[in-house]
Amino acid sequence: MARLNEAERVALVQRQKTRDKYTATSLSVAGVLGFLIIWQVVAASGVLSERFLASPMEIVRLFFVKLVDPSPDGATLGVNILSSLTVALTGFVLAIVIGVPLGLFMGWYRGFDRFVRPIFEIVRPIPPVSWIPLTIVWLGIDLRAKAFIVFFAAFVPCLINAYTGIRQTSPVLINVAKTCGASNFTIFRKVGCPSAMTMVFAGIRVALGNSWATLVAAEMLAADSGLGYMIIMGRQFARADIVILGIAVIGVIGTLFVAVLDVVENKVLGWKKQ
């Protein structure tokens, strides 16, 4: 390394990063393939009946069949996915739009914090699923009802992490901004909010998992379409393959959501890595 010039050092480091990336990707792919192979072997060995455990190949075949066949739950797979995505994204986006700014303001303005915190502390411990019966009474089982349940599940982590993130803003940065004559709101906007973004995205990640899981629970109890509804119908008709397909689709969509969130986070917080 001591004999290399600057350009050669940069190229060497970049090649090392590329090799590390390919190694990590290869290990991830190997892990998934290994899991699928073990699953296929166990299903083919007859240790468990096909009634209880369908093989991966059977799930793939069922995936294409369910794209056009609405049985047994009365909707095709595409309709169920679209229904779940509509509800999940509606509640999730509303939780971000309301929860993140509210948490930032509570963390920065002490008077506002004292005004809102008692109400929040009363509502926070209530499990999202416990709202389902009352929501059905208020709103029925349409989009608004399920979106409200998802919103509540995602709202709490969004607010808490935004609140914690802005409270951890460095006092040194705040004092420097005050010395330069910046107003309190300017410091909040240009120092506090950027400083809190790492925690904000951590909260959004938790909210994403909460909203997706709560959506499935809500659809199992009160819905006429969606992936959760498809799973519960598969259970009622003793179709383990339908249940496994629903679980697999939920997992794949959740992984795609996380990947998209990673891209957004890298774009927003790219300045921290420079």
Search tags:
274 residues; mainly alpha; 0% strand; flat
Q: How would you describe this protein?
A:
- This protein has 274 residues and is mainly alpha-helical.
- It is 79% helix and 0% strand.
- The longest helix has 40 residues, at 6-45.
- It is flat, with a radius of gyration of 24 Å.
What is the compact description of this entry?
This protein is mostly helical and 274 residues long. Helices cover 79% and strands 0% of the residues. The protein has helices spanning 6-45, 56-66, 77-108, 110-123, 132-139, 143-167, 171-179, 184-221, 227-236, 240-268.
Shape: flat
Distance between the termini: 23 Å
Radius of gyration: 24 Å
Q: What is the β-strand count?
A: 0
- Compute the number of helices: 10
Low-confidence stretches: none
How would you spell out the order of helices and strands? Answer: HHHHHHHHHH
What is the helical fraction, as a range of percent?
A: over 70%
| Strand residue content | under 5%
Class derived from helix and strand content: mainly alpha
- Compute the average pLDDT: 84
What's the main sheet like?
none
What are the SSEs and their pairings?
Elements: H1 6-45, H2 56-66, H3 77-108, H4 110-123, H5 132-139, H6 143-167, H7 171-179, H8 184-221, H9 227-236, H10 240-268
Helix pairs in contact: 2-10, 3-4, 3-6, 3-8, 3-9, 5-6, 6-8, 7-8, 8-9, 8-10, 9-10
